[in-house]
Amino acid sequence: MFHFGFEPEEKLVQQTANSFAREVLRPASRAHERSGVPVELFQRYWSLGFDRMELPVSLEGLGQGLLAKVLTLEELAWGDAAAAFTLDNLSWLQPVLAMMREEDARAIVTEFQHQPATRVIVADGRDLSLQVQDGRVSGHLPFVPAAEPTWLLLRTTSSAFLLRSETFQREPVEPGGLEAAGGSRLRLDKSSSFWSVTDPTHVERLWSRARIALTAMFVGVARAALEYAVEYTRTRNVFGRPVAQHQGPAFLLADMRTSIEAARLATWYAAKAYDLGAGDTARWAAYAFLEGAECALSCTRDAVQLLGGHGFLRDHLVEKWMRDARVLTLLCGGRDMASEDLLYWKEGEITPRTLAADTGGKED
Predict the structure, then answer these.
(1) Are residues 146 and 208 in the same domain?
(2) To 10 degrees, the CA torsion angle through 49, 152, 269, 330?
């Protein structure tokens, strides 16, 4: 059992993230959707320390754990999930930096210091028939939520690779959600990696971290949808009284709140397990991902329904949050790969699937 009594530092960073989301991200969410996130906002995000919270002090980080990070990500995603996803880049590499040589890690951190708009994308290639031979990766990624990704953290059947943009080709794709981040299709042709790892324990740790961070964003966008729906149904009158006072909408709002609380607790539990190095972190990360994905998808959909026809108009942000949630929940392999990981999970590890048998892919 874990105790979720937050330290003063964790409460402070949560409050800071809430202020940033409320005062900066939410008011500009439609502008970010039209024109992308401006470079100066990346610089401000870096100066606030959000992107380097988990890095050790030796790498210009704040030395905080993943639990503090998920508190921050929920608040930022509440403001604008697309902008938060676009701004948060270096932190996806936190477990990678901890595993690689210190001089290489320091060089990457320095790159972000000078170019804070550098984009990092995490992708699961286990169901895409990627081929790995002699440490080189070939195949296609049909969609990644970044217009110009600089780094690609790619998982295959039993390995993880970190690749630079010089090693893969990019083609622009129109995104259906997370429009502030942009979209592209990637082609890898015997692409060499900057760094790689084959130890399954390390692969699962970095993937657990990615899933837990995404789940915090699921909770944030779901909470935004709930709060918006509550405010709308309290002030919109139907048959002589507010919509929220009718039994059907009231039950729906209660279900949304229950789902969010469950997903948040699952996220906190998984993050705490990660910070403590628990052997079953991968299982709790997959559980939390599934709970959070279902929460985000259902809450944003129900918020649109509670607004009626207005829910589909761009005058209200709920339609944007529904689209963003649908794209967010596809990342890191989506619900399908999380479910399969739980299916293959054994005590202390996740047994890799034989991708060649399942999809015709090959990994040497």
Answers:
(1) no
(2) 120
